[in-house]
# Entry
Amino acid sequence: MRHLSLSSRLALLFAACTAVVSLFAGVLFSRASEAHFVELDQQLLDGKLIGLRRALQDIQSSESEIRLADELSRQADLSLRITGSDGQRWYDSSAHLPEKLPQQPGLSTLNNDGTDYRVLIAPLFDDRPDSPQLTLLLDITHHQHFLQRMQHLIWLTVGLSALATALLGAWAARSGLRPLRRMSAVASGVSAQSLNARLPEEDMPPELAELAHSFNAMLGRLDASFQRLSAFSADIAHELRTPLSNLLTHTQVTLTRPRPIEDYREALHSNLEELQWMAQLVNDMLYLAKADHGLLTPKREPLELAQEVDLLLEYFAPLAEDAQVTLTREGTAHLEGDRSMLRRALSNLLDNALRFTPAQGEVRVRIVEEAKGLSLVVENSGDGIDGALLPRLFDRFYRADPARQEGSSEHAGLGLAITQSIVRAHGGQIRCESANGWTRFVIELPKGD
# Structure
């Protein structure tokens, strides 16, 4: 069965079920027919027994023999044997009766030389212990032949039914499994260039509609992941092209002619800045790759969030003072998490908020402790973000500012992606909201054990 197709398996199962049901029904019908014939024979022999007893009331009378012959002549397939109480044979109505007959009173069946008999043994006189015994033999060969033909017909019907069911089952299974073959055809045609193929869910039977929906959802996820991967590769090339070009150009210009040692030192210092930025970019990409593969395992240590936030605000205070931006913190909460990872995430959010907050603006950090977790909100005043751009803020290399600063050594567009990875590694979620002149990033974290 392991090497048979699903259609063949279903066809064989249909055939087996039909054969079993047909055989069961045939056996029941055969037994019922046999019991019916036994009942008819019993009624017939009981009636004949009454007539024979009446004809043999005076067994010594010559008229009894006449009445007996008349009674037997009415049933051509009926024979009679009369024996005395001592077992001596008195009378046989036919010379071809079997020599040995059953001895027990009642109804029984006997086969002799290819002839089947229904035998009824009863005393001639019920009230006399020494009464002669009447043995009535009814030829039922034609009944038995009928039952044999019926059994043959049953076996033939079972075989033909199983064959017909196998053929019809194969056709039905093949027709019913057509959606699966369609799914197989779509799956075999899926490639990096054809991830937009989808199964028509409305044409699927209810049993396969959910599978088709899951299959289409899988293709959608693959398509989205492939698009992000392609965009990520393009963004990496885009980000590295400018610094590499700068390094090559600057180095080539420096080497065109002999220069003072100070010029070489200045050129190396400039190249070092570009190389440091490229190294940081590569480190950030490796960090995100580890996050994608679930390799970020944060430490679990008790943290006082208010204290951690205050340390970061103190670090960003000189930048905020230069930009004429006010930094504030509200609330407090305890959390078990990785101090360095959470500091990096909050630093990215604070740096992002300071860059987009206008002079005389405000950056606020609010900590809200809840029953099942806590919320950490970093919000800043200023121009809002278009709602259509909010879902893309956490994409890698994405900048809400349309003027992309290619090769910028400060902002490569990976900060929010790294922040999201850190939050998710802690079992939390992050989202962005922008309305009424405020833009806020909301981090929701579980408290932990």
User: Anything to note?
Assistant: The chain has nine helices and twelve strands.
